[in-house]
Inverse folding.
């Protein structure tokens, strides 16, 4: 498996769009509702990669040979009083590759890049229902709290979101 920042190309955007559609169809709470059109998924990734080109985020991809099997976005565009902070978003792993360490490798690389860019605090949110709370806790993230009824689940119904944070400088020496 190779983990690397993603650059915009038609084939990569197609792969990201396909992964997003699959994730939402499988119930992944990543800001979209099911059914998600390929056109909407493509538009999202085009915009996201344009932001990456500006340096406001890093979109990481996990590759198994030529196949994109996962992604995670590191958001770097924080307010002027938060130059030390980053946020994680859109963690996705292809259903067939879940439980094989893809998310762990993506997260470790995002943390490494965050530190390289002077970020020492990182935060994220994950759905309370069927989210990845256990994974983030295992990776050393601290639960700050829950916001109830935060978002709709992809197939309908409300779910809360759990806010997590991690002080990276505590873990890297």
């Amino acid at each position: 498996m190779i983990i690397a920042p993603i650059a915009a190309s038609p084939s990569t955007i197609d792969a990201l769009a396909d992964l997003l559609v699959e994730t939402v169809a499988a119930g992944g709470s990543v800001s979209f509702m099911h059914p998600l059109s390929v056109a909407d998924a493509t538009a999202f990734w085009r915009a996201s990669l344009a932001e990456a080109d500006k340096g406001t985020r890093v979109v990481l991809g996990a590759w198994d040979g030529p196949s994109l099997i996962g992604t995670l976005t590191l958001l770097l565009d924080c307010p002027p009083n938060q130059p030390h902070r980053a946020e994680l978003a859109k963690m996705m792993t292809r259903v067939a590759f879940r439980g094989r360490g893809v998310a762990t490798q993506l997260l470790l690389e995002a943390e490494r890049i965050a530190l390289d860019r002077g970020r020492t605090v990182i935060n994220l949110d994950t759905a309370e229902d069927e989210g990845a709370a256990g994974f983030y806790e295992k990776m050393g993230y601290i639960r700050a709290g829950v916001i109830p009824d935060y978002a709709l689940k992809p197939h309908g119904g409300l779910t809360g979101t759990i806010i997590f944070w991690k002080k990276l400088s505590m873990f890297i020496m």
About this structure: The domain at 2-170 is CATH 3.40.630.30 (Aminopeptidase). The chain has four helices and seven strands.
